[in-house]
User: What shape does this take?
Amino acid sequence: MSKNIPISILELAIISKGSDASETLQKTKEIAKAADDLGYNRFWLAEHHNMAHVASTATVVLIGFIASQTKNIRVGSGGIMLPNHSPLIIAEQFGTLETLYPNRIDLGLGRAPGTDGLTAQAIRKDFYEESQQFPKNVSALQTYFSEENSTAAVRAFPAEGLKVPIWILGSSMDSAALAAAYGLPYAFAGHFAPKVMVEAFEFYRENFEPSEYLSEPKTMACVNLIAADTNQEAEVLSTSLYRMFLNLIQNNRQPLQPPVATLDGLMNEAERFHVNQMTACSFIGNKELLVNKLEKFISFTKIDELMITSPIYNHVDKLKSLKIGMEIITEINRR
Assistant: This one.
């Protein structure tokens, strides 16, 4: 390939059946340390609320913990749901993280609540109004990080003057338009909403306005990756992924389920259609198969960076998949 593509990880800290939050967070630490040793570029954590089987609710706390347990890998949010928070508080929190772990912190921002409507209202009563103010609040956050804010009445310490990269995250054309207009890097949630991904990337590149933060467009796609020694083994492991999305469709809150030999009989035709639509950007197989598939994907989407998420039930299998993932991108970058 013509350019070197970094590979990164989105970790949702999903609690597996038979496990709990404490064990899951320790496993998250082990995954981050392994990713750091393997040479992954970033390790991002996502903000979710009112989900009994997701352990990343206090995202900023978890980012600090992971950064403290690793050495080189960038650690950040994929993302912080900005309408849930005051831009001032986010600037203070990420300024503190950047002060503790210089040049290693990323701030990915999303517009959604990361939860259901009732919980969004419990987080803040004016969530809907704040979600409409997302572009304005991104600007406010940038202002708090700027040196020019030193003369303002309200300042964010220790954020002022720190260069924490801000990414716009999304799964729609709205996020692409905002990232382009603000001259910020753009990450697309292809792991659960790939339908307009290519169109969004094209719109972003065509409408990108250079800024003090970025001189040219920068794109990252997040996809599901489940790698194993054989295609058959990977297919079995992937049944946990498909059952997770089936549970989302059915509003059936369960921990990550162990793999099964077959999905036959577990979902009806309509459910299968929706699950397949949401997981269309999933790469499942052995190293040889995935090198070819991901090379075509990277070439087609023209992305600058690949981010993977791997909902695999068994911890050892997940660590092995991450190792194969790095081998895959290394092989692709050699070509």
